[in-house]
Specification:
2 copies of one chain form a homodimer. The first copy, chain A, has 3 helices and 5 strands; from the N terminus they run βαααββββ. Chain A is α+β, with helices and mostly antiparallel strands. Chains A and B meet through helix 1 and helix 2 of A and helix 1 and helix 2 of B.
Chain lengths: 138, 138
C-alpha cells in the first residue's frame, strides 16, 4: 500500500507476479465476464482460426492490473483513473507480472494524487499490456 | 403442459429435443454450476486422461430433463420428485432428446399425481440418462 510522502517521481514500485494463467481460469473468467467467445476456451476452435490454441481474455489481464492497482491504493487512496492498452496475447501457462512506475505526483483542490505507468508483462519481458492509473489519496 | 384428465398409464408424452450440445454451453454450465473440472472444458486435459475429448457435465443432462419436466408441469402441476441415473456420456455435438412415459396415475389426500418414467437419449438412441418424476396437480 502506497504512502504519498514516501513516493518519488520515477520510482519503481514493488511488482505483483500472478500464478500461471490456466485454462480453468479462462473458463471461470468466461462465466464471470459473460464473454463466451470460444477463442478463449476451445483449443480446437482457436486452431481453426489460425491460432496456436486458446488465448486469455484481454480483460482478464486488465483485471490483473486492476488487482495490482487496488493493492497499491489499499485503504490510503482511491482509483480515479485506470486505463490500459493491450499488447501481446496471453496464453495458458504464461506468468504475468504487473509493475508500475510513479509518473507524476501532484496536488489538485487540496488533494494529493499520484499517476502511475503500468505494465503487465510475461516472464519473458514481453509486454501484454500497458496502462495508466491515477490514485487520489484520502 | 399436461392435463390430468387426458393422461393414461403407458401413454408416451411429446418429447423435447434440445439443440446440439456445444463446447460453449459446457463453459457456460461450468460457470453456472461452479463445476470447473477441466474434463468438461479442456480437450487436451480430457485426452490426457484417456477420453476422446471433453464430455458434458452429467448435471447438464439432468438439467435438460428438468427443463422437460417443468414444461410438462407448466402451471398445472408442481414437481414433487425428480431423480435420474446417468448412462452414456454426452459429448459436444450430441443431440439429446428427452422423453417420458406415464407410469402411474394416482390420488393421495385428495390430490392427483402422475409419475413419469424419463429418458434422455442421443439421436442414436443411446441413453444418456433415465429417471423418474412425480407431478402433483393443482
Amino acid at each position: 500500500m502506497l504512502e504519498y510522502k514516501e513516493l518519488k517521481e520515477g520510482q519503481v514500485l514493488e511488482p505483483l507476479t500472478k500464478e500461471p494463467v490456466t485454462k480453468v481460469q479462462l473458463v471461470q473468467y468466461a462465466g464471470a465476464s459473460g464473454d463466451f467467445n470460444p477463442l478463449h476456451t476451445d483449443d480446437e476452435f482457436a486452431k481453426s482460426i489460425g491460432m496456436n490454441g486458446v488465448i486469455a481474455h484481454g480483460m482478464l489481464v486488465m483485471g490483473f492490473l486492476g488487482e495490482y492497482v487496488m493493492k497499491l491504493a489499499g485503504t490510503n487512496a482511491e482509483t480515479t483513473r485506470f486505463r490500459m492498452r493491450f499488447g501481446a496475447m496471453t496464453r495458458p501457462g504464461d506468468v504475468i507480472t504487473c509493475s508500475a512506475v510513479v509518473k507524476e505526483l501532484y496536488e489538485e483542490a487540496g488533494k494529493k494524487y499520484v499517476s502511475l505507468s503500468l505494465t503487465a508483462a510475461k516472464s519473458s519481458e514481453e509486454t501484454v499490456g500497458s496502462g495508466q492509473a491515477v490514485l487520489k489519496f484520502y
